[in-house]
Amino acid sequence: MFKKILIANRGEIACRVAATARRMAIKTVAVYSDADDSARHVRFCDEAVHIGGSAPKDSYLRWERIIAAAKATGAQAIHPGYGFLSENEEFAQACLDAGLVFIGPPASAIKAMGLKAESKQLMEKAGVPLVPGYHGSDQAPALLQREADRIGYPVLIKASAGGGGKGMRAVSRPEDFDAALASCKREAITSFGDDAVLVEKYAQRPRHIEIQVFGDSHGNYVYLFERDCSVQRRHQKVLEEAPAPGMTPAMREQMGQAAVAAARAVNYVGAGTVEFIVEQRADGSMNFFFMEMNTRLQVEHPVTEAITGLDLVEWQLRVASGEPLPLRQEQLRINGHAIEARICAENPDNNFLPVTGTLQVLRLPPCVAFLPPLPQGEDGGRGQPIRVDSGIREGDAVSPFYDSMLAKLIVHGQTREEALARLDAALAQTRIVGLNTNVQFLRYVVRSSSFAQANLDTALIQREETVVFNQEPIGLAMTAATAVAQALLGEQASEGADPFSRRDGWQLHGVTQRRFEFEFHGEPARADLRYLHDGALWLEVGEVSGPLVFSRVEDAQGNIDVHFAGQRLTAAVYRQSSQLDEVDHVFSERGATQITTIDSLAHAGQSHAETGRLTAPMPGKVVSFAVSVGDKVGKGQTLAVMEAMKMEHTIAAPADGIVQELLYSPGDQVAEGAELLKMAL
Length: 681
Ligand code: ADP
Ligand code: ADP
Ligand code: MG
What we know:
There is one protein chain. The longest helix has 20 residues, at about 475-495. The strands form nine sheets. This protein has an eight-stranded antiparallel sheet with strand order 14-13-10-11-12-15-22-20. Helix 12 (about 415-430) runs antiparallel to helix 13 (about 440-445). The protein is globular. It is α+β, with helices and mostly antiparallel strands and about 675 residues long. It has five domains: about 5-105, Rossmann fold; about 130-200, 2-Layer Sandwich (Dna Ligase, domain 1); about 205-470, D-amino Acid Aminotransferase, Chain A, domain 1 (2-Layer Sandwich); about 475-605, Glycoprotein, Type 4 Pilin (2-Layer Sandwich); about 615-680, CATH 2.40.50.100. It has 19 helices and 39 strands.
């Protein structure tokens, strides 16, 4: 076994790999960029080497520096994690040439599976079922359109070099094909430097079910069952689970064998995932088709670990050091059910726009971080009920340079229902202040009837849009009451007074009534508080009024208990203060929300006049402008396209107007808040 390895990645996956290495008494070397100089993964490893600037191309993608760092520190092998260099065959080969072990498949297998079109040609030969489609090398637009017409609509145009859900366009009518092809090629060339595409039949009620495979250097292969990753946004996974609901033992075996055949066809070694699209026909039958093979450890591998009781990174290390696979197919068992939720810095209500900021508060549910899961044993090897894989710490800045995924929550239960309830509870305990996340959105998805009843397909989020987007879990009255209670408790604490003298204090100051001005979901709101003669409090929030009673709960979460107008809420409130106002973030079992207390004095004289300024919502790169100077544009029309955190974002006109000036050019890097163009409204 290796004595020391270098981890060529960052964030949660770097920490996760290091955890297993530590358990196996293998020393670890981290690499880091400028932006990551105090990142969690740097502290987590035994040594760390700085490799360059914040942008991935200046650090995590500079493989000559990474190899030099491995040589300088005496590391014997490099674990690439996922993303970055993990599927780069030149890097895998360069490791080998430098006398280092690449913890992953041989470069030839990465290459064979690297392009979707070429890998499909290989799979066809290996007898793996394929989605009806065209994956030839002739790329003439007219030919592609003819192929689409032959396949039948809807079709999906995919960048052959694509990944991460990028470079895909669904087309439902022949007349839309041309425009979709052009925009797909544009994204493919900017993101992957290769605009070759393939065309596939768009499957009916599609489910994404993938098989974890493993090979060793002695020609042995196993499959570690399936993961259902159907719950997606922008073709990217949001929730993943294992086993797949509704999977029959016969279908599992067929899919497992097809996946092993795929791996064998490219002499695969190490951990890999074969992704299938599963079509659910009206008659209830399910057909699976090969989509692609990811030649690396996958983000969602922990759900497989939870149901098998195995540590896949340990397997990777053993296989890479030449050992045979630890178990044979017939020794593998599924135990219980596991679900993973990806926690991302993004705004689901704004088209999942990634956000940046500082993690002022970060509370993750109590868990045993990382591994090891219990070994498979007579007791069935119960997995850990809750696992958190994270690469962040409170106080960290979330920069625009990397993926928006902050952490993963993984839960295990004996049944799907148990796992689901546990996930909901774990999400309720996840408290992040300082930037927007998808935590509350994930709770809505978990509770939606489609997910709860395992009515899964890739359109689940769309189908449930009325219950997963723009929801308010607590409501104005109770949220305002909680903010008032928190403010009074804060005053009480700072005055150091007990409740009785405080009551007298109010009387002494002659204050019998107070008004609180709020902003809630962008709307102004107010609460009037009256101190009654008997010392009780009476609150009025709009139409709702009643006695307000509250107290601190003496628990570790800092919860308070609030009773108002026949409702009760136990919540933790975190206050974020700025010059103009204070935002209270309210976290409760019912959900999380926020309310702004406005200091009317500070706001005096401020006006929010309409202006024609159009600014970048986040730091990123300008991809293109859809308008020119002098153009008349209508409200909602696309003005510009930006790219940040691996996604494209459209900037739309806030109102009708005329474009006056474009302040940047395509390709320019812009800071958050930078003015992109001027419009006369
Ligand atoms: P997977 O197929 O493993 O679930 P996705 O397709 O959702 O991963 O992720 C898209 C790409 O982004 C993958 O290549 C993955 O390696 C990369 N990626 C996702 N999250 C991170 C992260 N936190 N850090 C670095 N790369 C990431
Ligand atoms: P990537 O490399 O970006 O992960 P994939 O080929 O794995 O690309 O596809 C990503 C997602 O797009 C799938 O998980 C699925 O939701 C959807 N998808 C891909 N192919 C099809 C298809 N033929 N029919 C329906 N949906 C598809
Ligand atoms: Mg994929």
